[in-house]
Design a protein that fits this description.
The chain is α/β, with parallel strands linked by helices. Helices cover 47% and strands 8% of the residues. Helix 8 packs antiparallel against helix 9 and helix 11 packs antiparallel against helix 12.
Length: 531
Amino acid sequence: MVPDRVPRLGDALRALETGRFVAAAAAAAALLADDAADIEARLLLGLARGAAGETEAAAALLDEVAHTRPECAHPCHDLAALLRRLGRADQASAQYRAALALAPADAALRRGFAGHLLEAGDADAALAALDPADASAAAHHLRGLALAEQDDFAAAAEAFRATVARDPGPADGWSNLGMMLRAEARFDAALAAHDEAVARAPEAPQIRVNRAVALLHAGRFTEAWVDYEWRLRLPGHTPLPPERLLPDLAAAGDLRGRTILLTHEEGFGDTIQFVRYAPLLAARGARVILALPPPLMRLLAPLAPVVPLAGPLPAHDFHCPFFSLPRAFATTLESIPAAVPYLAADPTLVAAWAARLRPSSGGGTPRVGLVWAGQARPWLPGFATLDRRRSASLADFAPLARLAGARFVSLQAGPSAAEAACPPRGLTLCDPMAEVRDFADTAALIAGLDLVVSVDTAVVHLAGAMGTPVFLLDRYDSCWRWLSGRTDSPWYPRMRIFRQERPGDWTGPMRRVAAAIGAASYGDDVPGRRG
């Protein structure tokens, strides 16, 4: 035993963790020179050389370590984790390939590589990386995750079913099975799987939230709201004290003179959907304050005093995230407060935007607002996949070009707004969005339209809340709030839903939308909004 081995190993490890890879490699190599059998020094040398970009040399060293410690995970996983923290995921992929070239039959190494590829967003490569003969629960779980990313929900469900058959203990396999069954509208089976997951991890917030979404989608609101409150326990969700959360109104007592702070959570559409409850609280005598991000402040200011969400929050008796209001009101499918409009555009802004848009060519010419993509929200884990599923491209709206006389207005914000510069052939599109500041401007634009056609974004909620006819282009694995098998919405009486029949395929819904607009069957009972 080298007398000063432990402090020297510590020095090498600290050098590695602080990015001094040459120094770490030198320290580890010096230890190996004193004792060629020092497996920890060999591991540190392999990690240091891999982090420094010496892929082949690192693979050889890590392969030696793996053979010496067959009971441990392959050290390539440690190196990959280090490289991901350094923002060098591509280098991690190369390191896995080099390791697999030396140990092609190592199924655990292949599973690690597949997991890394999934984290990098490459589901196709992840499936290819797995050994087809690997029938372990872990391999089936990875297959299920990759198939779900490919939108093959039925096949993903079968993979997760195989996962829980081989290892029924972990909750994740059951929860993922439940999510895939929900995507296929198999709600009884989905809820049975979620119940199994909750039984195994009753204190796991995400497991509870996943079940809540399935309950909501099945229309079982009373059971769902309790589970959905577990989202407030997710890391970093809210800094506000849980003991001041607005209780169910049946237990809240007299609200007269009490101040209730309603807080925005994540999606703009969520806040627009649930702000309908703010006047109902005020009707009970409460003083309501809305804590909002800037894009919503002008729009919602007529409902209640508004404060910036990011600033110091005012004193209050209760706080309540907007998404918790249905729970507080014990909302069921039958008791949804669906009176519209509950939002209106500022008349001054309506007049200003009407003056900027080209006048209609005639009283019978419909004006139709279009939105084809959502907000990506890259800061939310997993949301990129959801946004990809719900979003279309402007090219998908090509069937609308056949509608003679219809005038189209872009309501698309964000990076996808650039597509407005190249609309499908024959589709004339007015694009005022470069001058839009916030949702108050968007509302003013909508006030001048006869119809909004949109994928599942905040604009759908805004048009619905204003009482404007809205056609929702809904993805195959629909959001819970649109329920299942319906073409209408209990939340928005002027909405019609056009659902995908196959994941990722907008041709059917778009063809039906074009037919409905052509037949003027989107709101003949509503006075025209053309200026």
